[in-house]
Amino acid sequence: MTELSKIRNFSIIAHIDHGKSTLADRLLEECDAIDRREMEDQILDSMDLERERGITIKARAVQLHYTADDGQTYALNLIDTPGHVDFNYEVSRSLAACEGAVLVVDATQGVEAQTLANTYLAIDAGLEVLPVINKIDLPSARPLEVKAEIEDIIGIPAEESPEISAKNGINIHAVLEMIVSDVPAPKGDRNAPLQALIFDSQYDSYRGVIVYVRVKEGTIRPGMDIRMMATNAVYKVVEVGTMNPLGLTPGDCLAAGEVGYITASIKNVSDTRVGDTVTGVEQPAKQALPGYRAVQPMVFSGVYPADGAKYQDLRDALEKLKLNDASMVYEPESSIALGFGFRCGFLGLLHMEIIQERLEREYNLDLITTAPNVVYRVTKTDGTTILVDNPLDYPDPMEIQLAEEPFVKASLIAPQEYVGNIMDLATSRRGEFKDMVYLDAHRVELHYEMPLNEIIYDFFDALKSRTRGYGSLDYELLGYRPSRLVKLDILLNGDIVDALSFILFADNAYPRARKICEKLKENIPRAQFEIPVQAAIGGKIIARETIKALRKDVLAKCYGGDITRKKKLLEKQKEGKKRMRTFGTVSVPSEAFMAVLKLDED
Amino acid sequence: MPLFGKREKTPLGLYVHIPFCRSKCEYCDFYSLASKDDTLMDDFQKAICAHIRETGHLAPGYRVDTVYFGGGTPSFFGGDGLSTMLTAIRRSFDVSDNAEITFEANPDSVSDKLLSRLRAEGFNRVSLGVQSDDNQILTKLGRPHDYAQVVSAVERIRKAGFSDLSLDLMYGLPDQTQQAWVKTLEHVLKLKPEHISCYGLKVEPGTPLARYWELANLPDDDAQADMYLAAVAILKQKGYQQYEISNFARKGHASRHNLKYWNGGEYIGFGPDASSDFAGKRFSAIRDLRGYIKGIQNGGVVMREIQEVPPKERAGEYLMLRLRTTAGIDAEEYQRRFLLPFQPLEGYLHKCQERGLAVKDGSRWHLTPAGFLLSNTVISDLLLLQERSPALRRPDERGLHG
Asked: What secondary structure does DSSP assign to A258-320, as a single string?
């Protein structure tokens, strides 16, 4: 058990690519937490995908032992955070486990959108925010201006902030000293009833779920009976301990102020929800820690194996992913067009992309995904109300009395010169302007009420490109509101391809239908016959393109005996056909499905 | 096979690749050098002869019934060289008396001397590169001759006593219209060749044309398809039988050598980048003239990609190659040779027939001209169906399992 005064719990927050993970690595090295030879770059981001995208998807935590200039040794608990609006809730829970946050700002880029968004999250969580100016060794670094920006825009002192280069290990010592001196030591009564905040969990095939917690009050020991206050699940603690960069170190107990892990033969991560409070069965806490929210998938999409024979492999892969990601849901569905697959629910579009990429990479699957959609609420003429997360289940227009879609309150922050752009964007996405607040002389926060459906496609990307990366977005669900919705069907050679159907706002139907038909025409290879591509609402055709019949696909010259090369060509063509799905008489490559998903890119 | 008496020898084709040209044509991706380096040509000739000598004893049960000198430009290499190589072949292989012996020629390198020399050595077939009758197009393609030279070459080839002449034509050329193509055919038919090959221009990666083809005003695929169909119709009307996608001949004048490639016959290639299918293996020589010469001289590696072709793959080749010919594939032969069911293919071929792409003729299936144009799609569909069909059991296995 470490004395409270010798503990510092902190996160590192930053805009993407400002050097968060690199700084984390240097802190680890400086504390000799890991042998340099064993050091894999950016060890905190242990998933391949995270390293590649340069973002942290799942939070991780690590304990460092640092002997400060005052001669004392401190336990520094670094809690890493994901950095995307899809994971805002996870970020907020990680921050709630800390007393301080090191804010990394790129000395060449200055304050950017996520700098602000993350800083406000940290301030909301009551954290001490400590700016650090990174990349000062770059020729274009302008540390003084960036410090002034931090003071002006964010309003926190930055004059004394360390100027560092995480990449080249410059001034890392100053960061550690600052953490010791400026991050408040945690408080808490170690004899009080247990209250421990779950900020992450991870499935391990030997130990079951490893639950990452910050103990706020009380003490947790092996053998103790614990209860998850939101799910009411009860377990007996098997082991507690702390995380070091290369593994887990078991200990006697975790006491108030400490960050560590618990194992308790927990089979399922969905029993250990992020934000939930762990308490003792014998001496329970009166109430849970504030801020818990049950995570609701917001975006649904059909996920199918490109090769129908791989259905079982996809099922196994989803089961395994689910062990580690309680926020994803899935259930089997089948489509006439795509055969057997799964309807999957995600926190947002990035979450969806990440899961899909992990399935493809880690499980070596080739996937076809259908257009993402939100959950619609339909009241039928017979008075019953249904929730529709799959366009295939959308009732016939004649049976619909009232159709509703989820709306959100969106908060958009950006420097004032982009206000016009943001307004154009939000209006084009059916946003209803509510108000505008000046956060300071430069920055403005706009509030809109808009359909969630308009946000899930590519709103975040569109916002960033219209604000040169400065815009940030957050949203909260307002509930269902009546809307004029239609289901759009796509027909190939006269047959409806069910997997391409989707629900959308009636006024958007015509332009969208036209665009989809165009995209499909571009992406479906010409066949031996002409293929009409049509879009229809309730049987009425509203757009049409024609894929002309293929006339010529031949190797005119095949002599001189060089058969091998030609053979390879035809083999390749044959293999390509395996990636196609046949609908009636039309073969559709999986790229065509992808192209339909990316309608807004041009 | 008779138990007594003389055993019938297996026919064999020989191909000699002559990788020398006066200049490189813009579209060509065959291996050749635009060079007249006498030392290099001499070394090459020696290497070919040595390669032929080394190989001859590997084929004791074979009789060579076709020899083909291709390139490059064999006529550019010269009469003495080709004659020396043919002599080496006759010394090392059993070449039958009525063998078809072809050399490729360009109109700018067929002197009377060369022609009479080669005719005397036993060459009996000439394949002349014409490509077009339009001098502007010929210049654009980088051809080293004009059409007047073509006419003169044909006259002199006939005078030298060659009764088997093939002309190579191309369609889908820069600025070419359907009308111009039809005129080209009519023009060329006046030269009365026994054999015509018509190849659609294809932009091959790595060729000069590949760098600027977008600017070359090439007819699009649909236009090329129309040109092809026009050629098929015109040639048919003029008494040329189509026997392969791009090849047409008067009766009895189909190229026996080239038919080997499509009918699964055996052949051995000499020279860099020459391919062979012999004794169950496919192999090619390296695509590097100096490396080839050195390899032959010092006993080094000259072959790449030596592959034993398993029966399953032969079944794929059967479809891929036979469907290039108007004889097509035979259901019974297919099942017997490869022990694979023909039925899944037949279902698909019936669909092709409905679309006018294939024709059934007894137990045979062959593609129509429209089908030839789409042969890649048809063949790759068939290959997929083939891959997905389980092998038939051998008749004796059926017995075992009752």
From this structure: -EEEEE-----GGGS-TT-EEEESSS--SSPPTT-------EEEEEEESSGGGHHHHHHHHHH
Confidence at A58, pLDDT banded by 50, 70, 90: very low
- Torsion A391-A393-A397-A400 (CA) sign: negative
- Exposure string of B122-154, with b = 16+ CB inside 10 Å and e = fewer, is ebbbbbbbbbbbbeebbebbbbbbbbebbbebb
Distance from CA of B48 to the nearest CA of A (A): 17
Least confident of A35-44, A95-104, A229-238: A35-44
Contacts of A602 (CB under 8 A, 6+ apart): none
CATH number of domain containing B368: 1.10.10.920
Q: Answer yes or no: do B244 and B363 share one domain.
A: no
CA gap A60, A199 in Å, rounded: 9
The answer as to whether B296 is a domain residue is: no
Region of residue B292 (phi > 0: left; psi between -120 and 50: alpha; otherwise: beta):
alpha
Q: Is A559 within 8 Å of B261 when comparing Cβ atoms?
A: yes
Q: Which residues contact B56 (CB under 8 A, 6 or more apart)?
A: B91, B92, B93
Q: Give the H/E segment covering residue A172.
A: helix A172-182
Total number of domains constituting chain B: 2
pTM for the predicted model, two decimal places: 0.67
Q: Are strands A580-583 and A586-589 parallel, antiparallel or unpaired?
A: antiparallel
Which of A164, A154, A157 is CA-nearest to residue A18? A164
Asked if pLDDT for residue B301 goes beyond 70, the answer is yes
Write down the pLDDT at residue A121. Answer: 83
Q: Give the whole-angstrom CA distance, residue A114 versus residue A125.
A: 16
- Closest Cα to residue A269, out of A366, A198, A215, A217? A198
* Tokens of residue A67, six digits: 């002997």
B352 and B245 fall within a common domain: no
In a 10 Å sphere around its CB, with 0-12 CB exposed, 13-18 middle and 19+ buried, how is residue B252 labelled? exposed
- B199·A550 Cβ contact <8 A: no
Could you tell me if B135 and B22 lie in one domain?
yes
Closest by CA to A276, choosing from A90, A477, A505, is A90
Residue B353 identity (one-letter amino acid): Q
Our CA-based measurement puts residue B160 at a distance from the nearest CA of chain A, in whole angstroms, of 26
What b/e readout covers A2-12, taking b as 16+ CB neighbours within 10 angstroms? beeebbbbbbb
Neighbours of A313 (CB within 10 A): 15
How many whole angstroms separate alpha carbon B188 and alpha carbon B183? 8
Length of chain B: 402
Q: Look at residue B210 and tell me whether its pLDDT is greater than 50.
A: yes
Average confidence (pLDDT) over B378-382: 95
pLDDT given at position B192? 97
Window B:41-70, CB contacts with A under 8 Å: 70
Residue B143 lies in a domain: yes
Domain CATH for B245: 3.20.20.70
CA distance linking residue A513 with residue A489, whole number of Å: 9
B320, B348, B354, B387: which to substitute to probe chain A, counting the most A Cβ within 10 Å?
Answer: B320
The answer, for B317 touching chain A at a CB cutoff of 8 Å, is yes
Q: Please, are residues A301 and A359 in contact by the beta-carbon 8 Å criterion?
A: no
Residues A129-163 as b or e (16 or more Cβ within 10 Å = b): bbbbbbbbeeeebbbeebbebbeebbeeebeebbb
Interface touch A561/B383, C-beta < 8 Å? no
pLDDT-based confidence at residue B103 (cuts at 50, 70, 90): very high
Closest CA of chain A from B294, distance in Å:
23
My answer on whether B240 and B315 are in the same domain is no
CB contact under 8 A, A552 and B224: yes
Question: What domain range is B109 assigned to?
Answer: 10-262
Where is pLDDT greater, at B249 or A292?
Answer: B249
* Phi (first) and psi of residue B373, to 5 degrees: -60, -30
